[in-house]
Amino acid sequence: MIHPARGFGAHYAAGLHAKSIVGSAPADTNGTRSTPEACVQRVFISGLMPSASRVPAGHRIPIGTHSRDYRVRETHEMKHRIVHTVQKFLLNPPIKLALATGLPLPGYALLETKGRKTGKPRRTPVGDGRIGNQFWLVAEHGTKAGYVRNIDRDPHVRLKLREGLRYRWYRGTANLLLEDDPRERQRWLATHLPSSAGNARAVRLFGTQLLIVRIDLDG
Question: Quick one: fold of 71-217?
């Protein structure tokens, strides 16, 4: 239907634009071809116009995704940037310094991974999640975390763990448990390691994409 305020020329141009975005007009369920006008209507209804240019030519725009999804994603991205900046420049440096000098910090451990680009050691303070010969941690930002991407490239890690008033380095192999339920795992950890409850609350508060990492300690 031609919108009276737009006129035929603008309406036809919009139809050509939609056709260029989605490639050839997709077939409806009854086997007939959709018109460019119908494509435009679906685009506006689905709220995908801001991202339609990223759809490859010849691929149909995924109808049913709403602009709200983009707002939620943008909110998570902003939260991740803020939390990452605060941790990197304000929170982590004094904790890393204390752990590096051997000062006892209850509830913390130091994770060392190998940089995926440089190959140099990268150290990150994490909550102490040792249970027997395994170490459990919840990555707040999932696969966006630098140490998670390092583990994905090379799972061999080191952990500086507290034993009494002293610390000792352990070697281990990290596993990214993509199918594990982070909240259920945190509840399980709290029953075996009550001191992890406080760290779990902070992770849920500041996290954007929780991911479980299990490290099997050598020896």
Answer: Pnp Oxidase; Chain A (2.30.110)
